[in-house]
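All the exercises in this workshop are built on plain-text protein records. Instead of coordinates, the fold is spelled out as a row of discrete tokens. Once this layout is familiar, the rest of the handout is easier to follow. The record below serves as our worked example for the rest of this section.
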Amino acid sequence: MRPWPSIVLFYLCGVFAAAQLGKLAALAPLISRDLQIGLAAMAALTALLEVCGAVLGGAAGRHLPRFGMRRALGFAMLGLALGGAGSALAHNAPMAVAARLCESLGYLITVVAAPVLVATAAPPRRQAAALLLWSTFVPVGMAFGASAYAFLAGLSSWRWAQGLSVLCGVALGLCLLGRHAPGSMHAGPAPPSAGSTRQRTGAALWLLVAAFGVYVITQVGLLALLPTLLTEAGLSISEAGTWTAVAALANVPASAVAAGLMRRRSIVAHALVLSLLVSAALFPLAYQLGAAPIRLAMAALLVNFVSGVFGSLVFALLPTAAGSADRLSLASGRLTQFGASGALLGPPLIGFIVERWSWHTAGVASLALSLLAASLAWAACVSGRGFMPPNAHGKRV
């Protein structure tokens, strides 16, 4: 059976899950007005999507294989649909929080299970390419969510716009759980034995996911504050929003660059670190309030493009860093936990630095964090011997 229909299905699940990030950003002004939720509380409600990942990511990576990855992903889609329905029916803040937590659980399961399913469905020689495709799910999903839900809300209301979540979640869930769904006979890796579930992930993986978490702090922090920065620089709200979306989508061509680098595995370790070093040098330019707004926007776009090469390579290297197929779920869970923690910490941390000191200080802090991420990434490469694939005898080449 050809694997790509299944891979595309798993990828669409990721895009739909990530669309829930862009959804609330687009609908926030309408929800805030109708439910009388303040700006800070609305920002916290938006960030709740990452809470389950930050708290339960490691546990999900350990236990989801027992449940079945494909089945878990199918129920995650239904959970996102349920969360969308709950959001549409919410008439106060507690109901909105409960609906968002339901979406958060669905999002967690998706970002842990889907990359494992993508990796196991792909032929060995195409595994890196499949995971590079997967690495684009967040910017593509965010852009789709922000545009689609805003368009539907303009046609009707923000409550009816949530119907898109219900329709897409139910449709994807049925595709995954259906007996004759594409690839249903290959639902992912077999559940690990009791002994294998207690295996520990190696130092290289811990260092790699830690570097990824620090990278997410700087990237998400910049994207979250970019509209405010650009409006203070003189752009309109709509222009600032457009540039922010373009900057987020810069991660997509970055995955194409990463795909080219993966064909020359001898330079991957250097590319992994170099992308963080170059983006570190660009951060002060992106936060240089007083410069022309287009210059700030272009600097932010370059930051996301260059650092996006690192993010894409991390996903492509995950099976190698995990060490074995039965530890891939553990590795995906750890990556999810560190990434979600970075996404939760980034906006408030960078925002606090801006309020306490200045935009320039935020640029310097982002530079320092990127250097830390580069150091962790280099240590991961040294520990993992450059993440070279095993040869026929099981040794690193």
